């Protein structure tokens, strides 16, 4: 990720299954990226609180996302980087995860899981 970000600091990134949002917060604060951190709707209160405490300007936003939901994916737009940490622990959700990544990535974008 570090090499990709150094090449272009104007990249747009999204973190899937963000939990506390640590990866997305790091990318926004230390790499200067515009970042959207996402998680299931029931996990949003803590994520939104962390974003509120760590947001600088409009570079960091939190949004609920159910993987595979076409309307939610379309509303988020496309991204240069899709990141996720510990998101492959449920084999029954892998199809939705991979489909979401495909829809969210811009042409030439990269995913890091």
UniProtKB/TrEMBL annotation:
CDD domains per UniProt: AdoMet_MTases
InterPro entries per UniProt: Methyltransf_16, SAM-dependent_MTases_sf
Record-linked SUPFAM superfamilies: S-adenosyl-L-methionine-dependent methyltransferases
Organism encoding this protein: Alexandrium catenella (Red tide dinoflagellate)
Pfam families cross-referenced by the UniProt entry: Methyltransf_16 (PF10294)
Name of this protein: Calmodulin-lysine N-methyltransferase
């Amino acid at each position: 990720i570090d090499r990709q970000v150094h090449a272009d600091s104007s990249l747009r990134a999204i973190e899937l299954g963000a939990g506390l949002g640590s990866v997305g917060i790091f990318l926004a604060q230390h790499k200067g990226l515009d970042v959207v951190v996402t998680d299931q709707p029931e996990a949003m209160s803590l994520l939104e609180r962390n974003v509120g405490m760590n947001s600088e300007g409009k570079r960091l936003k939190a949004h609920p996302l159910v993987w595979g939901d076409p309307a939610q994916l379309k509303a988020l737009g496309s991204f240069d980087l899709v990141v996720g940490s510990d998101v492959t622990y449920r084999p029954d959700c892998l199809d939705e995860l991979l489909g979401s990544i495909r829809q969210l990535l811009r042409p030439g974008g990269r995913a890091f899981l």
